[in-house]
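User: I've been trying to design a sequence by hand for this structure and keep getting stuck. Would you show me what you'd pick, starting by listing the structure so we're on the same page?

Assistant: Good idea, let's start from the same input. This is the structure you sent:
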């Protein structure tokens, strides 16, 4: 469907859980409260919402979290979603730590591609930044390649880590021929002590290091990244810059939080409580109308550039 600014909305990000086995410093505070299990949308409820979304012309779904692979039944849910008529694509974003063991089930479910979040190849810094261990993520990448599954790498570049990390990630992405995307740090209350790097800062650092960069007009996936080619590297490199290259005018997505709020924008207080509707016995027509209303009212743009957001990214499903 089209929203009030005539943007075609065809992409829904579904957060399966607010829980994560990592606590990346830029994403959530070290200690965060979690919602009780019965407040999380059940799979049947999620599928009902997806059915309505399909009727509204949403055909691409991204499964996210928290860490989606922490939730039992994630691949069964993907399998059921993939079987729905009209579904074009179901993809997953994960920190990769639990991926190796769940990959066979995800492949059997028909997942279309996987994004792995990876910010550094320095094992000690990885642990400092995320609280997790790098080895399991590297193993998952190996398994993805062996299985022939399309994947991308996502990195939130921080000023404190700098060019060395970026160069190592470029080499890793080159090895796997996997698109590498740099997602600009979005300011949250929990990450006020961190400074991100913008796309142009990264590009100029790469140029200063002697690399040649050229814009690549092709799009790789459903995201708002602008892509570049770097001399000597086989894969495209994308920059997703919500602050320095605001893409709200072409935003095609809405988000469903794990507690059932349908949010027309990552950074907005408005949302439609679909869980309440469903648990109060709403009909399919009521559900459809409620979703249509909130999607239509999608705001013109986000406000990250005005004020840091008070939520954790893992609560909304970044
Ligand atoms: N756990 C999964 C993962 O790691 O991909 C899915 C959830 S995570 C919140 C989704 C993405 O949001 C990750 O790529 C993460 O790096 C990104 N992210 C989290 N906080 C962010 C922030 N403040 N600014 C930009 N990206 C952020």
């Amino acid at each position: 469907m089209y929203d009030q600014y005539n943007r075609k909305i065809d992409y829904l990000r579904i957060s399966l859980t607010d829980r994560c086995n990592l606590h990346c410093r830029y994403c959530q505070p070290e200690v965060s409260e979690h919602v009780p299990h019965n407040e999380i949308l059940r799979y049947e409820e999620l599928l009902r919402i997806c059915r309505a979304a399909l009727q509204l012309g949403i055909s691409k779904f991204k499964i996210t979290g928290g860490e989606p692979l922490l939730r039992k039944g994630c691949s069964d849910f993907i399998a059921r979603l993939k079987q729905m008529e009209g579904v074009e694509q179901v993809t997953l974003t994960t920190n990769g730590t639990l991926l190796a063991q769940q990959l066979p089930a995800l492949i059997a479910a028909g997942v279309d591609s996987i994004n792995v979040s990876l910010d550094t190849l320095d094992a000690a810094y990885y642990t400092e930044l995320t609280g997790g261990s790098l080895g399991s993520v590297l193993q998952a990448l190996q398994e993805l390649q062996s299985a022939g599954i399309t994947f991308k790498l996502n990195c939130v570049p921080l000023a404190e880590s700098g060019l060395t990390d970026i160069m190592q990630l470029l080499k890793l992405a080159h090895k796997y021929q996997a698109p590498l995307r740099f997602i600009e740090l979005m300011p949250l209350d929990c990450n006020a002590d961190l400074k991100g790097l913008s796309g142009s800062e990264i590009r100029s650092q790469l140029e200063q290091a002697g690399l040649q960069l050229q814009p690549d007009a092709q799009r790789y996936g459903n995201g708002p990244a602008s892509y570049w080619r770097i001399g000597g590297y086989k894969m495209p490199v994308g920059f997703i810059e919500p602050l320095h290259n605001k893409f709200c005018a072409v935003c095609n997505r809405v988000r469903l939080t794990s507690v059932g709020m349908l949010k027309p924008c990552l950074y907005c207080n408005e949302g439609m409580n679909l869980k309440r509707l469903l648990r109060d016995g709403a009909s399919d027509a009521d559900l459809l109308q409620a979703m249509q209303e909130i999607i239509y009212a999608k705001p013109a743009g986000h406000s990250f550039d005005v004020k840091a957001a008070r939520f954790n990214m893992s609560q909304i499903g970044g």
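That's my pick for every position. To get oriented when you compare it with your attempt: Residues 20, 26-27, 64-65, 67, 93-95, 117, 154, 156, 183, 185-186, 188, 191, 313-314, 318 surround S-adenosylmethionine (CB under 6 Å). The mean pLDDT is 94.
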